[in-house]
Amino acid sequence: MTTAQRHIACFCETTFDADLPTSADMGADPEIEQLILDGSFMSLTCPGCGKRLTPEYPFRLTGVSGFGDLFLVPETDRGAYERNTLGYETGSPGRIAIGFPELQEKVLIAGLGLDDRVIEIMKYYLLTGSTSAADGEQEKEVGIVYRGKESTRHVFNIIGMKEGEIGVARLAEELYGRIASDVETRVKEDPFQDFCAPPWVSLRRITGASV
Ligand SMILES: [Zn+2]
Fold first, then answer.
1. Is the pLDDT confidence value at 97 over 80?
2. Between 20 and 30 A from 48 (CA), which of 31, 69, 114, 170?
3. % of the chain surpassing 90 pLDDT
4. Would you say 116 and 136 are in contact if contact means Cβ atoms under 8 Å apart?
5. If you average pLDDT over residues 183-196, what whole number do you get?
6. Dist. CA 11–CA 101, nearest whole Å
7. 183 and 86 within one domain
8. CA 116, CA 122: separation in Å to the nearest integer?
9. pLDDT band of 89, cuts 50, 70, 90
10. Residue 59 pairs with which residues in a beta bridge?
């Protein structure tokens, strides 16, 4: 793992320096997967107020099954990434994750040996099947997050449908298999090509959702 010293500013106005990871390898740093999955990756405790902080900095994870390199772009850099004006190099990663939740999701998907393009297409079907909103109601910004498998079903959290509530959807393994069987064709077609083309494979490319 490589690290760099970062200058951290807490909301309590305490500032301090901390070494945070800039790159790691799934094989050489086996603990990294769990740190990302349990949310403790890049987390710090403010020495002033004791609050837990999770600042996001660019980070490269190499040796990720199915992806090769996975590069974390902080959520605050999303606009710059989309405008192609990032102030740093991402190299040529197999995948980009924007923000921690997406990094977590990609690592989970890779660990399960799944195809993230199929997962994003499943999200698309969830979204288009669930936003038949009442007339005149403005379309809400709905985020969908993959949470893993429960026996033969894939579990997704749906955020933003109802204020303060997280919905849960479970889609059958069969649907995953059906999409996977012709995913190479689908990803060349509309609307899938707009969010399945690497490196940033994410439904958020077309929904603009924050998660
Ligand atoms: Zn603090």
1. yes
2. 31
3. 88
4. no
5. 97
6. 22
7. no
8. 10
9. very high
10. 72
Q: Which of 192, 184, 171, 179 has its CA nearest to residue 129?
A: 171
Domain count, the chain: 2
Q: How far is the CA of 148 from the centre of ligand 1 (A)?
A: 34
From CA 101, how far away is CA 36, in angstroms rounded? 9
Q: How many residues does the chain have?
A: 211
pLDDT in tens, 30-75: 999 999 999 999 999 999 999 999 999 999 999 999 999 999 999 9
* The residue to which tokens 């690497």 are assigned: 198
Tokens 């060349």 sit at which residue?
188
Residues with CB under 5 A from ligand 1 (ion): 10, 12, 14, 46, 48-49, 51
| Predicted TM-score (pTM) of this structure | 0.92
Task: Assess whether pLDDT exceeds 90 at residue 131.
Answer: no
My answer on whether 18 and 89 are in the same domain is yes
From ligand 1's centre to the CA of 69, what distance in Å?
Answer: 33
CA distances from 173 to 10, 40, 152, 154, 178 (A): 44, 30, 5, 7, 9
Same domain, 105 and 153: no
C-alpha–C-alpha distance, residues 42 and 75, integer Å: 14
Residue 90 is part of which domain span?
Answer: 2-111
205 vs 211: CA distance, rounded Å:
11
Output the six-digit token pair for 194: 């707009």
Contact present, 192 and 121 (Cβ < 8 Å): yes
